[in-house]
Amino acid sequence: MLRALYRRLPLPKAFRPWLRNKVPLSLQRQRQFRKFGSINELYFWRLDHGIDTVVPIQNYFSNLFPDLETATRGQVWVYDRNGAEIARPKFDLPHRGMHLARISELVGREHVYGTFMWHIRMPDSVANQELVRKNLVYFTDRGYICYEKNNSQPAFVHGVDRYAVFQRQDMESKDLFYGEPERARAWIPEFPIQPGMQSAIDVMLLNRTQGARECLLTLHRNGGEKIFESSQTILPRGGALLSLDKQTLDLLQGDTGYFMVTGLPTHWGRPAITRHFSSGAISVMHC
Question: Which of the pair, 16 or 207, is modelled with greater confidence?
């Protein structure tokens, strides 16, 4: 409430710093950021086209606090495309250690794609630091994941947004980072579509909010003419895989073009793109 008043009242600029210093830090923040804890990302996994999803989970607390003993434990949550939980393995994580998980070993091949996240419990040595408790510190873990093609060719991509907020050292209950609905957004990748550059493009979408969102993928000729569209409703913590296959890309008839996604649930949650090449290789990127 105080945070909303502070942001919306027409207060003089010179008065705002004085007021901020008088209000406790916890009351300046949204409800989900008033203690201390960890913030984790939601990721997209897939097991189609010979692709496996490999998850290298690192103990990042060891790098932030190299002089402390940071051995801890963690957990992975795997969801299907509609956000329903299908696996929840646990693991131990040593100081300066890494845990490697393969989605193909956690779910059956009847599942083609979905979402997942992991959480590392804040070590006791870190949680007991006065600096962490007094300043209500939240550590954000947005690691790298790997899409591995045919057990040989890796393509790495990193997290770009935030999803779950774990308070203190909790391992089970969580809050959503986006506690309030975000307005839908549009996105266009940085690269154009050129003839012969790739054989297909997949757009991997996530919903990090608490409400269902409909996302629309459109393909345009250079100049703006729309020649294709495809949409899908994404449930909370679910995902969608919208594709531009060779037949669809051929609609450009040798011209250059671009594609666009509208309805993105969050400001920073730009999609990941998988580009398939005639050689069988893939590349994955955020752009």
Answer: 207
66's CB contacts (< 8 A; 6+ apart) are none
Q: CA 287 to CA 285: how far, in whole Å?
A: 6
Q: How many whole angstroms separate alpha carbon 252 and alpha carbon 257?
A: 7
* Total length of the chain: 287
pLDDT in tens, 210-221: 999 999 999 999
Which residue is listed with tokens 């959503």? 176
Strands 138-141 and 37-40: parallel
Name residue 167's beta-bridge partners: 37
In one letter, which amino acid is 51?
I
Q: Tokens standing for 278? A: 């005639």
Record the pTM: 0.89
9-13, 145-149, 167-171, 180-184: segment of lowest average pLDDT: 9-13
State the Cα–Cα distance between residues 205 and 270, nearest whole angstrom.
8
Q: Are 193 and 253 spatial neighbours (Cβ–Cβ below 8 Å)?
A: no
Whether 91 contacts 66, CB under 8 Å: no
Q: Rounded to 10 degrees, what is the CA torsion of 86, 101, 51, 285?
A: 100
Query: Which residue do the tokens 């003839």 mark?
Result: 195
Q: What are phi and psi of 277, to 5 degrees?
A: -115, 160
Cβ contact 38:141 at 8 Å:
yes
How many helices (H) does the chain have, and how many strands (E)? 7, 21
